[in-house]
Amino acid sequence: DPETIQASANNESDAFVESLLDKMSVEEKVGQMTQVTIDLILKDNSTTEIDPDKLRKAIVEKKVGSILNVKGHAYDYDTWRTILTSIQEVAKNETENSIPILYGIDAIHGATYLKGSSLFPHNIGMAASRNTDLVHEAAYITAFQTRSSGIPWDFDPVLGLGRQPLWSRFEETFGEDVHLVTEMGKAAITGYQKDGLKSNTAVAACMKHFLGYSVPVSGKDRTPANISDLYIKEYLLPPFQEAVDNGVATVMINSGEINGIPVHGSKYFLTEVLRNQMGFKGLAVSDWEDVKRLHTRHKTADSHKEAVRQAVEAGLDMSMVPYDYTFYDLLVELVNEGTISESRLDESVRRILKLKNDLGLFDQPISPAVSKEKLFNPDFDKAAYTASVESMVLTKNDGVLPLKQNTKIALVGPAANAYGPLHSSWSFTWMGNDESQYSEQTKTFHEGLVEVFGADNVFSRSVTEWDNEKNYEIGDVSNADVIILALGEPPYAEGPGVIDDLDLDEKQLQLAQKAIKSGKPVVAVLFTGRPRVISSIEPGLNGILLGFRPATFGGLAAANILAGNENPSGALPFTYPRKSGDVIHYDHKGTEEFREDIPNTYGNDGYRPQWDFGHGLSYTDFKFRDLVIKNKSIAKDGTVELTVKVENTGKMAGKKVVDVFVRDHFASITPSAKRLKAFDKVYLDAGESVELNFAIPVSDLAFIGRDGKSVIEPGDFDIMIGGLKETFTVK
Ligand code: BGC
C-alpha cells in the first residue's frame, strides 16, 4: 500500500543521508551550510560567464553547498542551463562525496530571472483576485520554468501579513487578512511542490520571512517589530503553520528583530517555535548577509565570529553569506575549538542533504531540457493575462466606464509609458527598473490602450523616465473625450522602496487636479504596490481602477477593462486608508470605531477607510439573498453550514468575489469587528443565479485567549455576506 511504500522510501532516504554524513569531514559539513552568490564564481567583467578557478575555489576548496541569484539581470534559458551544468559537473566530479549543489533563485510572481518569461501580478494583486486556482496555476507554471532552467529551489512565497502599508514589500504580501494569506500561501506552495519535489515540474518552495518582517513599527524595511505573543499566535503564525502542514520544504528568516531580539539569533523562534511547536522539519536559510549583521547592525554579537555562533546555536541551517567565505572559515574554527558541536552541524546538514535527495539531485543534478515551445507555452501567457484582469480592482465608477469604442483618450501621467510601474520588484532585475530587460510580449499601459482603442484615439506625451517633467504636464486636452491619468509608484524593491508618507506625491496630485479642472471626465488608473492616499483628488475623479503590479499583461488588461471587453472582478485584499495617519484594518477592535476628537467628531462612525477590505466594483450588478444557516445552535465540535444565493441582475457576464465574515458578539479577548473565514469567486452570466454552500468548522472561530492558548467560547456570532447578516449560537 502507498503508506508502506512511502515509509520504506523515507527509510531508504534516511539511510542514504546517514551513510553520507558518516563520510563527511567538518569542513564538508560547514560547506554544505554555506550559500554564496553567483558573483563569486563569475569572471570579473562578465555577468554570465563562469570563471573555472573561482568555481573551484567555491565548490572544491570551500566546499560550498548552495549558490543563489543572478548578476544584475535575467539570463536566457540556455545560459541558465550552461551555468548549472558547469556547477554540477564540478560538484560531481571534483569533490570528495560528489554532493550536488542546491541552486536557489527568487522566482517571484513568475520566473523573475528567466529572460522572455511572462510575469504574473505580484501577490497583492493575486490576493485581490481571490482566485486560489490562479495562484496555484501561476506557481506551477513558475516552478516548471524554473526547474527546467536547472534551478530546483525558489525563495517564495512571502507569508507575512500586509498590515503596515508603508512597508516597501507590501506588494509581495497576500494582503492584510490572516485567512486570505493562509489560503493563498497554501495554493502557491502546493503549486510549486506539485507532484513531489522529484518531479521535473516542481521546485522546493520557501516560506518567508519567518517571522514578523512585514509589521515593522516604523514601516521602514528591516526595522524592529514589537509584537505581543498573542498577536504572533493569532495573526502571524497561521499562514506559516498551514505551509508546514502542506509540506513546505524550506523557510527563510526575517532580517529584522522582534521585541529587541534579531530573529536570526533567536533560538526561541528558530527552534522552539518553528521546530518544536510547529513541527517544521525542512531547511532554514538566512536572508542576505543576515548572520554578519547580528554583529554589524543588530549588535547582539560583539564579533563576526560570535554572530556565526549565535545564528547556528539558534537553529539556522544555512547562511546566505553571500559575498565571501567568512561564515565557512569562522564556523570551522568554532567547531574545531569545541564551541559548536559537530552533532549540531549534523542536524543542519541532515536537512540539507535530505532536501537534495528529495529533489532527486544526486541522480539528476539538473532536470532534462525542454523545447522553447514547452517552456513558453502560450497557455502560460493566457494564465498570466487572466490573472492580470482578475487582480485589478475597480473602486469608483460614476458611469463613465466602460468607455465607448471610439472615445478620444488623453493619456497623462508617469505610469503611462513604462514597464517598471506595472511590475516593480523581482522583474528581470531586482527592482524591475531596467526597461531594456522586459519580455517582448510586455506592453505598457499606453501600448495596451493603443491596441484596444486604436492609435488614432489615444494621445500621450508621457515618457519612460518617471521623473521627466513631460509626465506631469496636462497639455492640450480640448479634443479629448476623457482624460486617463496613469498614476502610481515607480518600481522599487526592499530598501529603495522606503517612503516616509503614504500620500501620493505632490507632483502627481497636482497633475490630477489640473486634469479635474479641465472639466473633462477623468479616470485614474493607479499602478502601485501599496495603498497611496488619494483622498484629496478622489472626489473629482469619475472612475478609479487599481492595478497592483499586474505585470506583463497588466497594461493590456487595464485597457480591456476600461473598454468593457473585460469585466473587473478584483476585491481589495486590504483596507485602503483615507488618511495616511488613519490606518485601521477591517478586522479592527470595537474601540477603533469610536472617534470623539475635534474636528473629526465621528462618534461611533470612526472607521472611515477610503475603501473597505473586499471592496471592488463590476460593470454588472450582483444581488445577494437568502442567507440561511442550517444549524443555528452548534456544538463546539460542529460545523456551521450555510447557503446564500447570488444573482447577476445586470446586463453583462461577470465574476463576483464572495467574502464570508464572522463576528463574535462578546469574547474574553476583545472581538474584531469581523473576520474573514471563507471566500469564493463565482462566474455568472447576465440573469444567472447560483446557490453557494459554505461549511465553517466551529474550530475556525477559536482565538488565542488570555492564557495564550486557543479557545472557543460559547455565545452568539453573526455571519455576514454581501450586506446580509444571520446569527447563530455556539453552545
Ligand atoms: C530578500 C529575500 C530574497 C534574498 C535573495 C533578500 O534581500 O530579502 O526575500 O530571497 O534577498 O535574493
From TrEMBL:
BP-aspect Gene Ontology terms: glucan catabolic process
EC identifiers of the protein: 3.2.1.21
The Fibronectin type III-like domain, residue ranges: 656-725
UniProt enzyme class: hydrolase
GO molecular function, one term: beta-glucosidase activity
Keyword annotations from UniProtKB, A to Z: Glycosidase, Hydrolase, Signal
Keyword GTP-binding: no
Family annotation (SMART domains): Fn3_like
InterPro entries reported for this sequence: Cellulose_Degrad_GH3 (IPR051915), Fn3-like (IPR026891), GH (IPR017853), Glyco_hydro_3_C (IPR002772), Glyco_hydro_3_C_sf (IPR036881), Glyco_hydro_3_N (IPR001764), Glyco_hydro_3_N_sf (IPR036962), Ig-like_fold (IPR013783)
UniProt xrefs under CDD domains: GATase1
Domain of life assignment: Bacteria
Reaction catalysis annotation: Hydrolysis of terminal, non-reducing beta-D-glucosyl residues with release of beta-D-glucose
Gene3D superfamilies xrefs: Glycoside hydrolase family 3 C-terminal domain, Glycoside hydrolase, family 3, N-terminal domain, Immunoglobulins
Family as reported in the entry's similarity comment: Belongs to the glycosyl hydrolase 3 family.
Name the UniProt record assigns to this protein: beta-glucosidase
Originating species: Marinigracilibium pacificum
Organism placement in taxonomy: Bacteria, Pseudomonadati, Bacteroidota, Cytophagia, Cytophagales
